[in-house]
Amino acid sequence: MSKSKPSSPPQHLLAGQHCENLAMRYLQTQGLRPLERNFRCRFGELDLIMQSDSCIIVVEVRYRRSAHYGGAAVTVTRNKQLKIIKSTQQLLQHRPALNNLAVRFDVVAISGLLASPKISWLKAAFSADGII
Q1: pLDDT of 20-66, one tens digit each?
Q2: CA quadruple 108, 113, 117, 120: dihedral positive or negative?
Q3: What percent of the chain has pLDDT over 70?
Q4: Measured between alpha carbons, how far is 87 from 96 in angstroms, rounded to an integer?
Q5: What total of structural domains would you count in the chain?
Q6: How many angstroms separate the CA atoms of 108 and 111, rounded?
Q7: DSSP class of 12
Q8: Rounded CA separation 104/126 (Å)
Q9: For residues 92 and 84, what is the distance between their CA atoms, to the nearest angstrom?
Q10: What does the pLDDT read at residue 114?
Q11: What is the CATH number of the domain that holds 102?
């Protein structure tokens, strides 16, 4: 009986992990400290949770090879924002130590070839006001 060879993850998942690594390293060079990565709950997943002084920064990482049709940042739709906000509420319930900190929602948009990407950091890309 032969053992089946374990399959490697799909290419889009590998690209996603690579982009999250790029975003995390970039944000660290900007002075942010990583707290958690890929927090999952019933509402979805938070890519990166970072901290700057007394602020928790929830970061959605998006990649598009081309800037056609608005690029990576415009793919964070109102529906996606709602999922991120609800997931953040779950995060805060599971991590009570973070409850006294302000929360900000940022987007890191990565475009171009992954070998030489362009990274754009959109601070306070959206807020919970008016969405929930």
Answers
A1: 999 999 999 999 999 999 999 999 999 999 999 989 999 999 988 77
A2: negative
A3: 84
A4: 14
A5: 1
A6: 10
A7: H
A8: 8
A9: 12
A10: 82
A11: 3.40.1350.10
